[in-house]
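Subgroup meeting minutes
Present: P.N., E.W., G.H.
Scribe: E.W.

1. P.N. recapped why we're keeping a running log of single-chain structure predictions: easier to compare across weeks, and new members can see raw inputs and outputs side by side.
2. G.H. added today's entry (438 aa).
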Amino acid sequence: MIIIAGTLLFTGASAQVMTMDECMAYAVEHSVSVGKQENALDNARMNYKQSVASLFPSVSAGISATTNFGRSVDPETNSYTTVSTFSNSYSLSASMPIFAGLRYVNEIRAARTARDRGYSDLQIARDRVAMDVMKAYTDVVYYKGAVKISEEHLSASRRTLHQARKLHELGLKSAAEVAEVASQEANYEYLLTEQQNNLAMASIRLRETMNYPQNTPLEVVENYDIVPQQTAPQIDNVVEYALANNVQVVSSELAVKECNLRYLKAKSVWFPTISLSAGIGTNFYTNFENRSAFPSFSSQFKNNRGEYIGVSMSIPVFSNLSRKASVRSSRNALRNAKLEMEATRNAVESEVAQACRQMYGYGKLYNQSVKKVEASQLAYNGISAKFEKGLVTAIELQMAAADLLQAKSDCLRSKLQYMIEKRMVDYYSGVPFVHSEK
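Output recorded in log:
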């Protein structure tokens, strides 16, 4: 009862009406998982820029100043003295790799692939949120429809009970039949309460999935006109497109490419590393007790300047098996990525086949259920008319009402299930759930 009261409180306020697409767009925009994936993509972009920058020279500058008091070494005579001196130095150096077995090149290519995979992973996160919202949304639509169906049958049951009591007063119905109709009315009241509770819980789950405030009223659009396809979709065409373009498959392929590049990078540790370095430096020295004996700062800064340029080579010999372990680990990561790619392709192919089959099947069920509702409604109307004349029992009327209730429920369920599977087939055919603006 608390849930029902909360639902009535929400609906009493001015609620925002949203379609399924609007709910999915809102959820994607406010999703925590999507936000985290956006941050991960930003890191991947930064890592790519950093890997490119590793090919440029690294430049560093240094400056130092030293004051000696008491006994120290005279830099000119290299003998001990007790005078106070001051000295400082300035340096500027640069170094850059020339050859490292394509290590840096492969690192750049791997980082670029990781960045591209980040875009695919972001779209996967957006799609998963949209799919979760789509299912939660259809649950709300279903239970709203179930509440309306229960209300209609409860209202009809109350009218029947009123008629049964009048017929009982005229002697056309027994007390047992009136009790049977009253029991049916109580069952419909219970069913209505149950469906109202289910609707309240579905609404809570939808808000949670959307990251929508629970205390803010929200109404969903219920009416969707659908025309199920009369022919089964071409599964092979949808599968072929999905395996070539679906972001899940693309992400798994990029993961294999990235792992392969990192494996090549790991093998480059067996090659020598050649680096180029260059620098320039100068210094200044003076004696506090006899400053006139030393040249001025500008003169020393100019005359003491020195430059250097050099090439160094580092040859790997032995590193306690760390290089071998790194190569093997990278190779195993590549193997796992290939297995994951194969599993992803199989999963996507299976999901596409199921979505196509279920869409066609639910479409046929919906068409049949519409006919069943019409037939059940005619049967119920006929039996209800006979009941008013005392020609049928309350049990027969109850059975006809139960058949009609089940037919309406099955029709609503098959309609919503067709909508979901149709949306999934469209998704695997290249129609996004939510159009990205980024």
